[in-house]
Amino acid sequence: MSGFTLRFVGRSQIKHNTSGIQVINKRSVVFAKGPRVKGALRDPEDILTVNGIRYGSSEDNLKPLKTFLQTKLKGKYELPDKLLLQIITHKSFAHGTQPYNARLSYFGKELIQLSAAKYALSQPTDNEFAINNLNFDSLGSFTQSFMKSEKLLKEYAVLNNLDTVFFRRLALPSGREDADYKPRSIWSTLTASLVGAIATQHGKKAAEEFIQQEIFAGTLDQVIKSKSTPSKSD
Amino acid sequence: MAGINILQQVSRARNGIGAFVHPCRRIVITYCNFGGSSQGTRDFLRTRLKSFAEQYPHIHFNVLEKPGFHPVLRAEYTDGLDKQICVRKWDVNVVENKLKLLVNSSGRKLSKPKQLVKSLNKSVRGIWSPFHVDPSQRHKV
Amino acid sequence: MYQWSSKALGRKSFCLLSRRLISLSSVQGKVQSPKIKTEHRLSYEKANNTRVGDSAIQRPQSATDFGNYKRESFVLNLTEEDALKIPSILALHARLNLSPNFEKRTLVRALTSRMEDNQYADNQQMAIFGSNILSYYVTEYLLSTYPRLPIAILKAATEAYIGDFSLHDVAKNQWGIEADTSTNLEKYLLKEPKLFKFGKLRFDQLVTDVEDGITRFNNASKTSLAASTAFANSARAIVAGVYAADGEASAKEFIDLHILSRKVDISSMFEFEEPGKLITRLLRTKNMELPTIRLISETGRQSSSPTFIVGCFSGDSLLGEGQGSSLKEARIRSCVNALKAFYLYRPLDPKRPSESTFKPMFVDEGESFY
């Protein structure tokens, strides 16, 4: 957070100091080293770093997600490095200049939504209004809608430490920057894009298995039980 | 994305590409139980309607008695159109043929096509893509 | 002059009148207007996220015991024997070529919307499921066929396939589902059997055509629906019914046959503001040479109807061609074509993740902002 950029109209190259900030005027763009100023563009080198971690497909950056995939799923659904980096990059990172996970998470959310509905139907029932022993009556209820909610996806990402290395913008909505503040619209894309990536590389069946075993079987009950004490991050 | 606006569309039907849904939905046959002009229609209803209707399970046949009127066959189609044929004085064979005509129609008025090919697609060539051309064949300036 | 003054007078009197009305209403107390939630812009997203009020559902002890949920309003169940007596249901079943596993009374349920004072099972939750399965398969198809579509266009294209207006067209004009608009008196006069009303789409109508030229806007209740939503929900419920009867593979086939076979021209959904600027930005983010527009051929420059063909080039490679009656027009067209060639990229022989012959999909990097 050492630099920022201001846009000025001017062609000449000027260097000067204003209130302790060194300003270099190159063409029409100004790079200024010093404390961050709200609304100003930052140094291009600076925006590629989050919490001291430099963006790139280095081994250190991909290791947390790689080990997660190896331990949790017996290495069944390994993903290429390029995709792993894309999963842990949110659209808000570096003004969207790097490959980001929006499309993967959109696809993942669609699949999670369908799986949540199929899960609800697959439960054994003796309801007389069930069609072919599939009870539709729980769809659209609070708990069934919760299964596809961003909140659950975020909880899964946080519980499994998928966000150890997560490239996103630091200045979050409402100006909060503390470590506990994890907006679900951003954090949920981690889980959703992981599901989406598995679906694109290993097929729908594999991704559904992942959702079933990991999210619905593991995390759902845990989160519903702790719902009385929601984390303060929301 | 900034700079790209969306022009919203609604999908258009292409019946027969994918599933073919038979356009004829319902046939209403009106007849008079007394008048001579309904003789052929009455014969049809008595002798042939059952076997005829069994051939077309997707059509809802409706028989209405309308005393004092000529017999009329009316077909309703899925897109809200309908066609009517008056079968006064026609014998049973003609009634059956007229019914077949209604069943096999799309409901639209008969018209002579001006072009040999009618298509919803703008051009058969589609959008040109530079990536599908062999590099040795690409345009050089 | 006279006209002007009379107009001004009229406006003034109108203002006075409206002010008077406002003062009157404030004395009488505020009129409660129904709150309109605008969370979802697209109707398919709205259908996906429909919530059935928790007061309408009997919940078991454990919230995740989905098998034992029960709707409060479901009291009466139409028997299969009764459903077999309804000719329009039998005809619809045959018309859609549904399998014998698909019960006729399920079809009746798919045509019954959630209504006030209705004790029969309704299609609301079937429609939610149908919408979920439709939106997944349509998204999957679009993403594998056009992996580079911007997300906004992707959503708009999904809406074009499975939005309320499209499914309204499918249900009404393709499948021939009829809405039950006749009154009880009309049914009595027609001597129509009571069961026959189940063969039509029934819903609490938001708008009714009372007679020719007169439209009545009914008081919106919780259950009242626009005609397009009601028809679309019946189509969604039928897809859910296919899933329940024959499983997911059949539902997918049904969607392919009836929904994805329809025509959506995605290339004409784009409207580019300043296409020259956009293609420059795009090439810069892809680390390609910036675009140059070169004239390829021309005819009749001095005539009244000249034609120019120009190409949008990045280095030596031609990205798009444009033709026009002026150089500017041709240049803009060439940039638009170059952008469309990028965004509408189609892999050869795309495979969807749900197919058995699936192979890893092309994943795009996402649209860079600049």
List the helices and strands and how they pair.
The complex is a heterotrimer of chains A (234), B (141) and C (370).
Chain A: E1 3-7, E2 14-18, E3 21-26, E4 29-33, H1 44-47, E5 49-50, E6 53-54, H2 59-72, H3 81-87, H4 102-122, H5 142-146, H6 150-159, H7 184-202, H8 204-225
Antiparallel strand pairs in A: 1-4, 2-3, 3-4, 5-6
Helix pairs in contact in A: 4-7, 4-8, 6-7, 6-8, 7-8
Chain B: E1 4-6, E2 24-31, H1 39-47, H2 49-55, E3 60-65, E4 72-77, E5 82-86, H3 92-103
Parallel strand pairs in B: 2-3
Antiparallel strand pairs in B: 2-4, 4-5
Helix pairs in contact in B: 1-3
Chain C: H1 2-28, H2 43-48, E1 57-58, E2 70-71, H3 80-83, H4 87-95, H5 104-110, H6 124-145, H7 151-162, H8 164-174, H9 184-189, E3 207-211, E4 214-217, H10 227-246, H11 248-258, E5 270-272, H12 275-285, E6 291-299, E7 307-314, E8 317-324, H13 327-343
Antiparallel strand pairs in C: 1-2, 3-4, 6-7, 7-8
Q: Could you tell me the CATH topology label of chain A.
A: Ribonuclease iii, N-terminal Endonuclease Domain, Chain A
Helix content of chain C: 40-55%
Task: Write down the oligomeric state.
Answer: heterotrimer
The residue-averaged pLDDT of chain C reads 87
Strand order of the biggest β-sheet of chain C:
6-7-8
Strand content of chain A: 5-15%
CATH C-level class of the largest domain in chain C is Mainly Alpha
Low-confidence stretches of chain C: 1-34
**CATH homologous superfamily placement of chain A:** Ribonuclease III domain
Distance between the termini of chain A: 26 Å
Instruction: Please give the domain count of chain C.
Output: 2
The number of distinct β-strands of chain C equals 8
